[in-house]
Amino acid sequence: MVANTTVPAGVTLREDTLAFLNNDKQLLINGEWVAPAEGGSMPTLNPANGETLLNFAIGTQADVDKAVDVARRALHGAWGQMTGDDRGRILWKIGELIEANIDMLAELETLDSGKPLESSKGEISNAAAQFRYFAGWASKIEGSTIPVSNPDELVYTIREPMGVVGIITPWNFPLLMVSWKLPAALATGNTVILKPAEQTPLTALALGNLALEAGLPPGVFNIITGPGDPTGNAITHHMGIDKVAFTGSTGVGRKIMAAAANSNLKRVSLELGGKSPHVIFADADLEQAVGDAQWGVFYNTGQECTSGTRLFVQRPAYDEIVERFKALTGEMTVGNGLTNPDLGPMISERQLNTVMGYIKAGVDEGAEVITGAERIGGDLANGYFLQPTVFAHQNDSLTIVREEIFGPVQTITAFDDWDDLIPRVNNTVYGLAAGIWTSNLKTAHRFAAATQAGTIWINGYAKFDPAAPFGGMKQSGFGREMGKDVLELYTQTKTVWVGLR
Ligand code: NAP
Ligand code: MG
Fold it and tell me: For residues 45 and 280, what is the distance between their CA atoms, to the nearest angstrom?
């Protein structure tokens, strides 16, 4: 078997990874891998070298129609009739199979997305944890008994599945973003049609095999690969899809709401972009703070929705933090994810060019480059590699301070006190996350109350857990994934009145 991509000297891919890469990929409909109705396919690339890994199918309207049909039948058939306990067992098994295949899945994730192998492993382990967490919920979906004013009426509620759910995911955390949605949708009894991002379909397709191996009945989990148009569009406009769960950009989020409005008013939940503030007060543990601020912006080469890209440092600590940030950033390694550098490549030439455009805007508008700002050539010239970049500025209206960059670019600014800070922190259309470093308890909790963001991290950035709800305020979206809150997104309440007289 021959790998479809060049790997760095000294690296050998696993046999199971090579076996997976050896075949072009089809659609998963009704428990079978099938060719797309119109026969189209497209390549997925390795962003470390621009080479094609394999071709995968482009699903169109006819394929989505077929998937909706089988998903509807499974909803009212085998899956709908299964007990929560049995659904939970299958979810648990999928989690176990993900763990058992973590090394292969991590290699696929790294080849497809560029991210460092250790990051892939960590994310895939978290994906497995999501399945285990929601396995527990499958047998605990319950309504309530409502005391109404007339004692002769018994009123109770049932929580029913939404029905057929479309899941549309981005490329930055390929398997993990699927795993923030799929287990919750299945635990609550829905059936699913997944469209992974066109740049990174591999681990979702591998998950399809594991789900079948775990005993998921046919039609419960279907995978229709392809681009936003036509594949994503066919899902969001479909009259037979009851809900769409989406993670991606704010721009596409708007289109999804419009598609829902113009079709069957399907339910929509959106996890969108961000421009998160990360604040360091002068009384903080500066060493810890700067380390977290560095990883909080450069993890996944900055292609992260919660990236702490607006760093606010209280003036007495400002010079020291800028110096430390510069030194730490200069030491970061960039390379092919298979060699475990600190940063892998950007996902695509297009994304690299977008980020280079932002860097140019930063320079043109007068921000000071502290370090980085160049594309990396030499051995890495065929991939989409960029130096981690830090800007200093004193102007919150700069393009690089207002817009989501989605690349390895930090902006650092100084603030004086609370009254200066809070209006600036909230001066953004986004509200996904925010972080603060301080040793003052009051300041920390006042910040948590005053900041408009769905998640606040105090003295530690970018923490996630399947039990902790996550989601956006303002234009970062709506709906909370994970934890108990997500059950609301995948169920609807039916109220039953019983006359007792
Ligand atoms: P994107 O362009 O919005 O794409 C996300 C998904 O939507 C992809 O699968 C894409 O298909 C699909 N899509 C595109 N146009 C569509 C349409 N008209 N109808 C239906 N589906 C469509 O986002 P991205 O570039 O992949 O990811 C980056 C963005 O995601 C960033 O803005 C980031 O902040 C956000 N994000 C948010 C979170 C969060 O939890 N809040 C997490 C991760 C990422 P293709 O296959 O054609 O791309
Ligand atoms: Mg790829």
Answer: 39
| Ligand sitting nearest the alpha carbon of 52 | 2
Q: Render 32-73 in DSSP notation, one character per residue.
A: EEE--TT--EEEEEETTTTEEEEEEE---HHHHHHHHHHHHH
Q: Is the pLDDT of residue 1 over 60?
A: no
* Residue ID of nearest Cα to ligand 1 atom 10: 228
What is the distance in A from the centroid of ligand 1 to the CA of 249?
5
The answer to whether the CB of 330 falls within 8 A of the CB of 298 is no
pLDDT tens, position by position, 251-263: 999 999 999 999 9
123 lines ligand 1 (CB under 6 A): no
Chain position carrying tokens 């066919």: 234
Q: Which residues contact 314 (CB under 8 A, 6 or more apart)?
A: 280, 281, 282, 414, 415, 416, 417
User: Which residues does residue 195 pair with via DSSP β-bridges, in sequence order?
Assistant: 168
pLDDT band at 3 (very low <50, low <70, confident <90, very high): low
Q: Which residues contact 490 (CB under 8 A, 6 or more apart)?
A: 161, 162, 165, 184, 185, 187, 188, 190, 243, 245
Atom 11, ligand 1: which residue's CA is nearest? 228
CA–centroid distance, residue 239 to ligand 1 (Å): 22
Question: Does a cis peptide bond (omega within 30 degrees of 0) precede residue 201?
Answer: no
Task: Give the position, in ligand 1's atom list, of the atom nearest the Cα of 472.
Answer: 41
Rounded to a whole number, what is the distance in angstroms from the first to the last CA of the chain? 75
**Helices 117-137 & 102-113 angle (0-180, nearest 10):** 120
| pLDDT one-digit tens code per residue, 460-480 | 999 999 999 999 999 999 999
CA distances to 77, 228, 487 from 138, rounded to whole Å, are 17, 31, 10
Mean pLDDT of 98-107: 98
Q: Does any ligand 1 atom lie closer than 6 A to the CB of residue 419?
A: no
pTM flag (> 0.90): yes
Our answer on whether the CB atom of 354 is closer than 6 Å to any ligand 1 atom is: no
- Per residue in 228-240, pLDDT (tens digit) is 999 999 999 999 9
Name the token pair of 269: 């939940």
Q: Give the active site residues.
A: 271, 305
Side-chain-facing half-sphere of 337: CA atoms under 13 Å: 30
Rounded to the nearest whole angstrom, what is the distance from the C-alpha of residue 83 to the centroid of ligand 1?
34
